[in-house]
Design goal:
- The protein has 287 residues and is an alpha+beta fold.
- It is 31% helix and 26% strand.
- It is built from 7 helices and 18 strands.
- The strands form 5 sheets. Strands 6, 9, 10, 13, 16, 17 and 18 form a 7-stranded mixed beta sheet that branches. It has a 5-stranded antiparallel beta sheet with strand order 1-2-3-8-7.
- Strand 4 and strand 5 form a beta hairpin.
- The longest helix has 23 residues.
- The radius of gyration is 18 Å and the shape is globular.
Length: 287
């Protein structure tokens, strides 16, 4: 950590430091959150998996949209990033009907204003990916919103831009991942603006925290899917009768070990890099 860096904030899983007027340092911890609550148990190496995956995708999508990454630090969990004015939107793209989208569809037949055909099942693939924004909650749960509310928050022209860019990113990564045996059911982006008011991808990209990763060879619509993401933790927490408010439950060793294994497997499948090689030289994911 540079001596001049000043701690300026904490997220659910990241610590944020200011390096100078133009740069931030993001440090990904091994904390895990579910249902927007940080749990008391950490997942070893989780922060490095998230950092390495994000860097991998940032390096491969920069022609689709600029991103905030300036440098990947040798610890494998810290990144130097450009400062941005972040937009007040969670930019979610869904290629499959699952999670809160499935619950909304069951209740209303639509997801964030997108009216879907009748008779869809849990985990069905959608005809086309849909953009389903949400508000960014400082505390508690994010809230799904429709296009009209999203345009009110950022303006119609900017909303149209983030929708187009988000779907383009999802199409690119989902095709890439499918060739490696992983279905990206949905994913979340955060965008900001640089001093020239240009759109820049920030936060993270196509990680096991921001996406649902399903093994393609086990995909079977009509039921919940096995996954390479924190769904394993969500499923465990659902069995406890927990009311999904702080404090969160402790995780048993089997859930911790199983979750770490899923994160690492997703990293290795998507990047083609053995995780131990990344730990030895994080910049391998940028090449």
């Amino acid at each position: 950590m540079p001596e001049a860096a000043t701690h300026v904030g904490s997220g659910k899983v990241r610590e944020l430091y200011e390096v100078d007027d133009d740069r931030l340092l993001l440090v990904a911890s091994d904390r895990i959150s579910t249902f927007d609550v940080v749990l008391p148990t950490e997942i070893p190496d989780k922060g490095r998996v998230l950092t390495g995956l994000s860097a991998f995708w940032f390096a491969r999508t920069r022609e689709l949209v600029a991103n905030h990454l300036l440098a990947l630090r040798p610890d494998g969990r810290s990144t130097e990033c450009r400062k941005l004015e972040m937009l007040p939107l969670e930019c979610v793209v869904r290629g499959y009907l699952t999670g809160s989208g499935w619950k909304d569809y069951q209740a209303t037949g639509s997801v964030c204003g997108h009216v879907l055909e009748e008779g869809l099942r849990d985990s069905d693939r959608l005809r086309e990916p849909i953009f389903t924004p949400a508000t960014k909650a400082q505390e508690g749960h994010d809230e799904n919103i429709d296009r009209e509310r999203g345009a009110e928050l950022v303006g119609q022209r900017r909303f149209d831009e983030v929708e187009r860019v988000s779907i383009g990113l999802y199409r690119f990564a989902s095709e890439y991942a499918a060739e490696r045996g992983i279905l990206i059911a949905d994913t979340k982006f955060e965008f900001g603006l640089d001093p020239q008011r240009r759109l820049v991808l920030g936060d993270e990209a196509f990680t096991s925290d921001s996406s649902r990763f399903w093994p393609a060879d086990e995909y079977e619509p009509g039921r919940a899917q096995p996954s390479f993401d924190k769904q394993f933790v969500r499923d465990y927490c659902e069995t406890l009768g927990w009311d999904k408010t702080p404090p969160g439950p402790e995780l048993p060793e089997a859930v911790v070990t199983g979750t770490r294994a899923r994160y690492v497997e997703a990293f290795e499948r998507l990047t083609g890099v053995p995780f131990d090689d990344y730990l030895a030289d994080p910049e391998v994911v940028l090449r």
